[in-house]
Design a protein that fits this description.
- The structure is a single chain.
- The chain is mainly α and 326 residues long.
- It has 14 helices and 2 strands; from the N terminus they run H-H-H-H-H-H-H-H-H-E-E-H-H-H-H-H.
- Helix content is 60%, strand content 2%.
- The protein is extended and about 70 Å long.
- The relative contact order is 0.08.
């Protein structure tokens, strides 16, 4: 519909349909990106899995709300309330167990070192309606997790024709198997439909906006694109920002210091998408540029900056190159 906005004439639904049909007959409309059936099926499965993961997070928040309402402070002691230890305590609590010592003894592994703290955290005012609500949310959590596991099994089977591409994408820092499968599902494996990586970034909505009037730049806000692809790339960018000695991590910290964390995440997500484009189009493996890439491309400027900072602290600096050993 964007192509017909600049078309002169009255803007009514009937006129629009007639004019679009005429443009299509003359081959003046660009075709939309429609991936093959196997990719569309994989896309639908991945999106449904993402919806179920959101539902699991929502149910988890509901469970913690019930605990807070009952003055149970399990989250202050256990890092994962819904881990093995936490679930055992919650199931026992929902069935009527009130003995704090018995509940605390259900702790496993490293959590057993915090049994005294658990006794204090599990001392609350649990009433019958708390037990009923907790039991219902736990049942729904188990059901949602069962659905997620079924979807992941089906997705893994559907990924068989794309194993090489998924493994190649997993070489990118921050990209795990779920993310790689989602990338394949959203953009496919044939990059011929996108002339350049910049076209792909624009389609995904991960490039700067271009709003300009009278020679004045108004806004650089990213445009609306594929929300599913954008979300999974931003998640991968956040994971990549926590990696060590990688180009993407260095890019994130370099931009976050000047432009803020949110803009840095979008920029790293854009880089991951561009990397994925070239890996899929060229069939190559990912080769990291290293965390010192930005220092190497502007080594002279970095030296001047560091010397200037030392001189501002009252030091006289003389640089001497280290000669390579023979």
């Amino acid at each position: 519909m964007r192509a017909q906005r600049a078309v002169p004439g009255r803007k009514t639904d009937m006129k629009d349909c007639e004019w679009l049909a005429e443009l299509l007959q003359h081959g003046l409309l660009r075709a939309s990106f429609v991936p093959p059936t196997v990719v569309r099926d994989l896309r639908d499965l991945n999106r449904n899995r993402a919806i179920l993961v959101q539902q699991r997070a929502s149910v988890s928040n509901r469970i913690e709300k019930v605990l807070e309402d009952a003055n149970i402070k399990l989250a202050t002691v256990a890092s994962h309330v819904l881990g093995q230890s936490g679930r055992a305590m919650l199931h026992a609590m929902s069935t009527g167990e009130e003995d704090v010592d018995k509940l605390a003894e259900m702790a496993r592994a490293k959590l057993r070192n915090k049994i005294p703290e658990l006794r204090v955290a599990l001392t609350g005012a649990v009433r019958d309606h708390h037990r009923f609500t907790l039991q219902q949310w736990l049942l729904q959590l188990d059901a949602v997790e069962k659905q997620i596991a079924d979807f992941e099994t089906e997705i893994e089977q559907r990924n068989q024709p794309f194993q090489a591409e998924v493994e190649r994408l997993m070489g990118i820092p921050g990209v795990d198997r779920v993310t790689a499968s989602a990338l394949v599902a959203e953009i496919g494996t044939n990059m011929a439909q996108f002339p350049t990586a910049q076209h792909l970034a624009s389609w995904a909505g991960l490039c700067p906006g271009n709003q300009e009037s009278a020679g004045k730049r108004l806004s650089g806000k990213t445009r609306k694109g594929n929300p599913w692809l954008r979300r999974v790339l931003c998640q991968a960018a956040w994971a990549a920002s926590h990696t060590k000695n990688t180009y993407l991590s260095a890019q994130y910290h370099r931009l976050a210091a000047r432009r803020g964390k949110k803009r840095a995440i979008v920029a790293v997500a854009h880089s991951i998408l561009v990397i994925a484009y070239y890996l899929l189009s060229r069939g190559e493996q990912y080769r990291d540029k290293g965390s010192d890439y930005f220092d190497r491309i502007n080594s002279e400027g970095l030296k001047r900056h560091l010397v200037k900072r030392l001189e501002s602290l009252g030091h006289r600096v003389k640089l001497e190159p280290i000669l390579a050993e023979a």
